[in-house]
Amino acid sequence: MSAVLPSDTRAPSGRARSVRPLAGLTPYLRPYRGRIALAALFLLLAAVSTLVFPVALRGLIDQGLVAADPGQRLLALRGHFLMLFGVGVALGFFSAARFYMVTWLGERITSDLRDAVYRHVIRQSPEFFETTRTGEVLSRLTTDTTLVQTVVGSSLSMGLRNAVLGLGALGMLVVTDPYVMTQVLGLLVLVVLPSLWIGRRVRKLSRASQDRVADSSALAAEVLNAVPVVQSYTQEDHEAARFDASTERAFATAVRRTRARSALVAFIIIAIFAALLWALYQGTEAVLQGRISAGHLGETVVYVILLVSSVAVLAEVYGDLLRAAGATERLMELLQSQSPIASPPAPRALPAVRGGSSVRLHEVSFSYPSRPGAPTLHHFSLDVRPGETVALVGPSGAGKSTVFQLLLRFYDAQHGAVEIDGVPVREASLHALRGRIGIVPQDSVIFSTDAMENIRYGRPDASDQEVMEAARAAFADGFIRALPQGYQTFLGERGVRLSGGQRQRLAIARAMLKNPPLLLLDEATSALDAESERMVQAALEAAMQDRTTLVIAHRLATVQRADRIVVMEHGRIVEVGRHTELIARGGLYAQLAALQFAAPDEASVSEP
C-alpha cells in the first residue's frame, strides 16, 4: 500500500528529539564525495588560519609593543603586521573557496532531492492522491527542500567550521593556559545541556510549523484551481477567511517556535558573556601577578572568544539542523511511500498487433481503496475483439470509468482478471501497457505551453507536420490557426484561453497523434456544441478505423454506430446489444434513450 500523508502528519515521538532524519540525505551526498572532501579541506585551512591569528597577535604585543628598544620595536611591528596580513589573506582565500564549494553543494543536492521527490511522486498511483493533497506535496517540494538547502549550503558548513574552530581553540587553551581552559569548559557544559533541552522543543515546533504552512499551501492550491466556481458562488470572502485562519494557525505555531529559539539565543549569549568575562578576569589577575605576559593574556582571550563564539554558533546551527531534520523527515516520507501499482520485475512482452488490441475482463470485482465497503464492479466480464467498437452506457456511478482505470492499470482489481492482447495487465510493463492505449478524458487536460506542444504530448518525437495532420483530423486546425500566433500560441494554465470544445478537440488530436491500437473515449464529445460534435464525431469515426475503441457516453446519440452497446448499472452488465435491439427490448437502455431524445418517435429511431 502507498503511504498515507495527511496534512497534519506529526513526527513520531521517538524521532522528534534528534537530527537523525538528516541521515536520509546521505544518498544525495555520496555522488559528490570529491567536492565534499575539497570543501572540508578549505574549511580546515580556513579554521587553521583563524587559529594562527592569536599566535601572531601574541607576538605583536610581546615583541612589537612591549620590546624596550624603539628600533627593534619598529622592525618587529612591521614583521608582525605582515604576518597578520598574510593570515588575513589566507583566511580570505580559504573562506571564499569554502563558501563557493558548500554553496554549490547545497544547490546541487537540493536540486537532486527535489527532482527525486518529484520523480517519485509522479509515479504514484491515483490511490496516493486520494489521501494526499497536491498542495501538501508542493509544500514539501518547495518549503522543505529550501530548508534542506539552507542547512547543506550554509548552516552545516558553519557548524563544521565552528566545530573545528572550537576544538582548535580548546586545544590551544590546553597548551597556553590549562587553568583558564578548565574553568571555561565547565561553564560551557552548563551552556550546552540546557541548549539541547530547548532544542528538542524547537524541533517539535519546527515540524508543526512546517505542517501548518503545508496546510495553507494545500488550501490555496485547491481554491486557486477552482476560482470560477468560488466567484460564481460569491464565496471570495469565505475562502479568504479560511485561508486567513489557516495562515493564523501557521503564524501562531511559528511564534511558539520563535519564542523557544529566542529563549535559547538569550541564554547562550548571557552564558557566553559570563564565560568570557570570567576568563578575562582570571587572565588580568595573572598578568598583574606577573604569571603571564600581556601578549599571553591577549592570546588566551582571543582563544576563549573563539571557543565560546563557536559554541554559540553551534547552538544556533543546531536549531537550524533541527528544522532541517523535520523537513528531511517529511521529504523522506514521500520518498518512502510505495505505489501498489508497479511494473513486475520480469514483465511479459505484449504481442505485436494489427487492426487493434483485444480486451478481456473476467469476473472482475473492484472497490476503490478509499471506499473499500462500496464495490464499484461486481463479477464484471467483458470481451472485446480487435477492431471492435464497444460503447459503455449507464447512469452515473455504474462503473464505466472504473473499467478504463483498470485497463490503464491505475488500480488493480481485487478479484478477477484484466487482460490486453492476452497478457494480464499485472504482468506487463506499465510503460508498454499504457503506450498501447490512447485516452480522451472527459475533462481535457491542457498544459501551460503552446498548441503545438500540447498535441505533441501524445507522441513527443512527432514532426510539426504530423502534429498539424492530427489537428486537422480532429477539426482543431482551423481554430488553432486563428489564434494570435497559430500553433505557437501560449494557451495559458489549464488552457484557460480556449473554450471547452476547443480543449476537447486538442485532446482528441493528441490521442490521434499517438495512434494507439486501443482507444478509450470518456465522454469525448461532452463539451462540444452541435456543429463541433458533428465534425469531431466524423473525425472519431475515422480514428476508430483499424483499432479497438471503448466509448463511454451519456449522450446516446453518439454511440448508435457502435458494434456493441454494453449497458451497466451498479457495477454489473444488465444489457448487451446494438442500438435497435436494445430499444426493442424496452429495458434500461430504452428508458435512458426515451429520456434523452426529444420526440417519442425518436426513441425508436432505427440505426442510421
CATH superfamily assignment of the largest domain? ABC transporter type 1, transmembrane domain
Largest sheet: 6 strands, mixed
Question: How much beta, percentage-wise?
Answer: 5-15%
What is the CATH architecture annotation of the largest domain? Answer: Up-down Bundle
The overall strand count is 10
What is the C-alpha radius of gyration, as a whole number of Å?
35 Å
Could you give the order of the helices and strands? HHHHHHHHHEEEHEEHEHHHHEHEEEHH
Count of discrete alpha- or pi-helical segments spanning 4 or more residues: 18
How many angstroms separate the termini?
Answer: 49 Å
Provide the CATH top-level class of the largest domain. Mainly Alpha
- Spatial order of strands in the largest sheet: 6-7-8-3-9-10
Quick recap:
By secondary structure, the chain is an alpha/beta fold. The chain has 18 helices and 10 strands.
